[in-house]
């Protein structure tokens, strides 16, 4: 019988520095859900553990399941890394409010959104799944990948939870990966996932991502678009959420509409589609306004735009649906 280690604790983290709902359910990751009986609590998988998270005004409370039988003494550091708690959000909010009236207006309505620090393979594959897709289907695809190629880390009420597959796990199944994913109705994304895994291995494996972290942002993005099916938007998501390039500004329809109305009204008034040049013009404008952490400022504005559609159907890639699970359970 499998033995799943369970550890609980709490760590200093003011609620004004972390909004769990918008950070975890705002389209950055597809592995988190809310507790139906306690909507301020969340459960999901990250860094090889199944987590239950909740917070008070002063503390982030956690229970971590799985990760082997030995005690993990690094749980707090994993959460600090995941939520980038070393980043002084309050001070940067003050700067961003001074940078543009639009941010000042929106940040009164929504703030405390943190940019997650995710493992690059998971982030990459998840955003390939997100292309022209809605959040329920994206989540289903990601869970399929985890259950088929990941490792079981926890079980509760008959439900198994799995880690996201490693690059090695995908690589071992590369000969059949595309066909298997097509049978699972991944469509054209099956080819992109299989092709990306193959290309990453050719470029140096997991160390390739370490090299991208050290490159200047735009050079790192240019390397990422060498992967099959990866355009500027997905490359920027990876740069922002996995490689530490916090100046990366992913442009989707929400951000395009914000730029068209508030930041570049004259230049974009007659623009109907986003070409690579328009994409760079918009992202450069955000960097001009918000500086080296423009991607973080954009993430807050993105969530502010989405919050108009709470509990309503929406899509990812162009739009993202924020919808609570109806079957959430606390284990």
Write up this protein:
With 331 residues, the protein is an alpha+beta fold. It has 16 helices and 7 strands. The chain has helices at 20-25, 75-82, 89-99, 101-107, 120-129, 135-149, 167-172, 174-183, 189-203, 206-214, 217-224, 232-242, 253-263, 265-268, 276-290, 294-306, and strands spanning 6-12, 32-35, 38-46, 49-55, 59-65, 152-156, 159-162. It has a 5-stranded antiparallel beta sheet. Strands 6-7 form a two-stranded antiparallel sheet. Strand 3 (38-46) and strand 4 (49-55) form a beta hairpin. Helix 3 (89-99) packs across helix 4 and helix 10 (206-214) packs antiparallel against helix 11. It is globular. The model is unreliable at 308-329 (pLDDT under 50).
| Topology, number of strands | 7
Q: Cα distance, first to last residue?
A: 18 Å
Q: Low-confidence segments, ≥5 residues, pLDDT <50?
A: 308-329
- Estimate percent helicity: 40-55%
Q: What is the global morphology?
A: globular
Return the structural class.
alpha+beta
Order of helices and strands: EHEEEEHHHHHEEHHHHHHHHHH
- Rg, rounded, reads 19 Å
Strand order of the largest sheet: 1-5-4-3-2
How many separate helices?
A: 16
Strand content: 5-15%
* Largest sheet, strands/sense/barrel: 5 strands, antiparallel
Rounded mean pLDDT score? 89
List strands and helices in order, with pairings.
Elements: E1 6-12, H1 20-25, E2 32-35, E3 38-46, E4 49-55, E5 59-65, H2 75-82, H3 89-99, H4 101-107, H5 120-129, H6 135-149, E6 152-156, E7 159-162, H7 167-172, H8 174-183, H9 189-203, H10 206-214, H11 217-224, H12 232-242, H13 253-263, H14 265-268, H15 276-290, H16 294-306
